[in-house]
Amino acid sequence: MNVEEKYKAAKQEYEKWGIDVDDILEKLKKIKISINCWQGDDITGFEVNPRKLSGGIAATGNYPGKARNPEELRKDLSEAMNLIPGKHKVNLHAIYAETGGKFVDRDEIKPEYFENWVSWAKKNGLGLDFNPTIFSHEKADDGLTLSHPNKEIRDFWIRHCIISRKIGEYFGKELGQTCLTNIWIPDGYKDIPSDRLGPRRRLKDSLEKIFQVKTDKRYNLDSVESKVFGIGAESYTVGSSEFYLNFAAKNDVLCLMDTGHYHPTEKVSDKISSMLLFYDKIALHVSRPVHWDSDHVIVFDDELKEIAKEIVRDNALDRVIIGLDFFDASINRIAAWVIGTRNMIKALLYAMLLPNGKLKKLQDEENYTDRLALMEEFKTYPFGAIWDYYCKINDVPIKESWLDEIKRYEKEELAKRE
Ligand code: RNT
Ligand code: ZN
C-alpha cells in the first residue's frame, strides 16, 4: 500500500468515531510553532564581543558545524524548515542583532539591527518572536539583573527590555503577525537568602517600569517566564512561579510556562486548563528536562502528548502560543530542530485525532472504565499513516527519510565550517 492508500484505510478507522481527519489536517496546517533559533549556535549569538554563556543555562556537546554567523544560522533554519510541515515562526534573542561590526551594548540595540532577519522572514513567510537577552553579559555575571540591588544595573536591563519590546513591535508590524516578546531573567541565590522580599520587590518595580511603556497589542504581546531554580541559583529564584502568576494577572501580560521550570513531579499539562480560565492567552516553552532543566530536544513522550491534548481539548489552539526551548550541542543541530518541531506538530495531530468529545462525556457519566479503555485502545490506532500523509501533502519527507537530506547538508555545508 502506498501513502495515500494507507491514509484512506486509517481515515476510515477514525471516521467510525466521527473524527473528521481531512478537517483536522486543515486545522493543523494553521498552527504555528515558534522555533527557537538558539538551538543552531548553542546560544552564542553574534555580538561583536561574544560573551561566555551564563545565567545557569548551559549547552553541552561539541558537535561540529554550528552556525558561526547570521547567514549560516538563517541557512540552517531554512534547511530545517524544509523538513518540517507547515509555516512557522522563529524565536530570536537580542544577541542575534547584526550591528555591522560595531560594538553596541544591549541597552542600545535598535530595530534596524534586525532588518536582515525581517527580510528573510518575509521572503520565507515566517513570523518572528523575540527575547531580551538578560544573561551572558558582564552586568549579569553575579546572577542578578532586574532585581539587582544596584539601581544602575537594574536601569540598564530595564532599558534593554523596553527597547526589546519595541523591536518585537517592529517585527509584528513588518510581518503582519503578532510577536511575542518574552522576559526571562536568571536572578537568584546559590545559598539561603537573608532577604527574599527585597529582590522580589525590586523585580516588581523594574517590570512595572518596563511595562509602563506601551506597545501596540496588534503587533507585540509580552510574557514573563518563571523558573524554580538554576545552576548557581539553587536556593532561591526571584522570578518564581507565584511571583509571575500574580504579576501577569495584575499587569495584563502573559505568563510563559517552560516545561523545565517546575519541580520534577509537577506537570505543565496540568496547569494549562487553570491558566486558560484566568488568562486570554498563555505561552509555552516546550522543553525536556532530564533530572533538571537540561533543555534536551523534545521527544514524542507522554507529557508532550498530554500538553497537546490539553490545548486541543480546551479548544485553545489560538490561545496557547507554543514555543520551543531546547539546545543540544551534542547532535546535529539541524536534526535537533527537525526532531523537536516535528514531534510538537505530531503531538498536536495525535491529540486532535482522539475522540475527545466522547471521552469527556464518559467522564461526566462517571464511566471511568470505558474512558480508560478507549484512551488505551486509541494509542494503537493508525496515527502514523495520517502523519505520513500530512508530511506528503505538505511536501516534506516522510518518516525518517529527512535524515538523508540532513546527511547531504552535513557533508556539503556543515563539514566546511571547521
Ligand atoms: C532559561 C529559560 C529561557 C532560555 C532562553 C534561551 O532557563 O528557559 O527561556 O532558555 O531564553
Ligand atoms: Zn524557557
Automatic annotation (TrEMBL):
<keyword id="KW-0479">Metal-binding</keyword>
<keyword id="KW-0963">Cytoplasm</keyword>
<keyword id="KW-0413">Isomerase</keyword>
<dbReference type="InterPro" id="IPR050337">
    <property type="entry name" value="L-rhamnose_isomerase"/>
</dbReference>
<dbReference type="GO" id="GO:0008740">
    <property type="term" value="F:L-rhamnose isomerase activity"/>
</dbReference>
<feature type="binding site">
    <location>
        <position position="293"/>
    </location>
    <ligand>
        <name>Mn(2+)</name>
    </ligand>
</feature>
<keyword id="KW-0684">Rhamnose metabolism</keyword>
<comment type="pathway">
    <text>Carbohydrate degradation; L-rhamnose degradation; glycerone phosphate from L-rhamnose: step 1/3.</text>
</comment>
<dbReference type="InterPro" id="IPR036237">
    <property type="entry name" value="Xyl_isomerase-like_sf"/>
</dbReference>
<feature type="binding site">
    <location>
        <position position="295"/>
    </location>
    <ligand>
        <name>Mn(2+)</name>
    </ligand>
</feature>
<dbReference type="InterPro" id="IPR009308">
    <property type="entry name" value="Rhamnose_isomerase"/>
</dbReference>
<keyword id="KW-0464">Manganese</keyword>
<dbReference type="Pfam" id="PF06134">
    <property type="entry name" value="RhaA"/>
</dbReference>
<comment type="function">
    <text>Catalyzes the interconversion of L-rhamnose and L-rhamnulose.</text>
</comment>
<feature type="binding site">
    <location>
        <position position="261"/>
    </location>
    <ligand>
        <name>Mn(2+)</name>
    </ligand>
</feature>
<comment type="similarity">
    <text>Belongs to the rhamnose isomerase family.</text>
</comment>
<protein>
    <recommendedName>
        <fullName>L-rhamnose isomerase</fullName>
        <ecNumber>5.3.1.14</ecNumber>
    </recommendedName>
</protein>
